[in-house]
Amino acid sequence: MDSIALLEEFEQQFATVTAEITSKTCLLTSREGADKRSLIEDVEKLKEEAKELLERMDLEVRDMQPQKREKYSSRMKSYHVELQRLEAEYNRSKSRISEESIRAELMEGGLAGLSTGEEQRQSLLDNTVTLERTSGRLTHGQKIALETEQIGAQILNDLNSQRQTINRARERLRETDSDLDQSSRILNTMLRRVLQNRFILYAVVVTVAIVIVIAIYVSMTRN
Cβ distance 137 to 85 under 8 Å? Predict the structure, then answer.
């Protein structure tokens, strides 16, 4: 199994584990005694399982090629943030349990304000609000991850476009160098021809001068 397929399997497992953490965290305030302790133990185990999955996913991402690694690194950041948020929510629920225990003791001592049925309804309302808030945050985290992925893809496209521009500039530079070399050869050839023509002209002038001198000399000799 390649890294991407294995990573996708880990992502599915992570989604299942975090969903269970959310569900059991919401049930904490509505359970008592052994049930509550059992839920706390389950959540602690699920937290460790989620952390282990993140570590394995981090290892798979580090072994990927640079282009794919950048894409999945943004996802990993959102997963770490989501687990931290779930841990914070779980800790708040445990703190709320302690506060409710104290309030229950006061109510048993004669300072009660709400009946048992009203407490259960209030607890159900609190759990519903917590679940809605958790769902909203998860949706927001997924939106951020998608936006980050889109930004990364845009950056890669820009880099690819810039690389193509640089390659075209290099090709044009090579063509310019080739044209300059050809122009230089043409100029050298023209210069050699000019020098040859000048030498021929000088030779013709000298020859004509010699002929004229000879003609003058012969003419004077006859006279």
Answer: yes
d(CA 18, CA 21): 5
pLDDT above 70 for 29: yes
> Phi first, then psi: what are they for 46, rounded to 5°?
-65, -35
Cα dist from 58 to 5, 54, 77, 169, whole Å: 14, 6, 10, 39
Taking the C-alpha atoms of residue 35 and residue 143, their distance in angstroms, rounded to an integer, is 36
pTM, entire model = 0.44
C-alpha–C-alpha distance, residues 124 and 118, integer Å: 10
Give CA–CA dist 180/182, Å, rounded.
5
3-state secondary structure at position 2: coil
Judged against a pLDDT cut of 50, whether residue 113 lies above it is answered with no
CB atoms within 10 A of CB 57: 23
**Which residues in 128-165 are b (16+ Cβ under 10 Å) and which e?**
eebeeebeeebeebeeebeebbeebeeeeeeeeeeeee
Question: Closest Cα to residue 24, out of 47, 4, 1?
Answer: 47
DSSP string for 34-47? HHHHHHHHHHHHHH
Residue 200, CA distances (Å) to 81, 189, 191, 192, 195 in order:
90, 17, 14, 12, 9
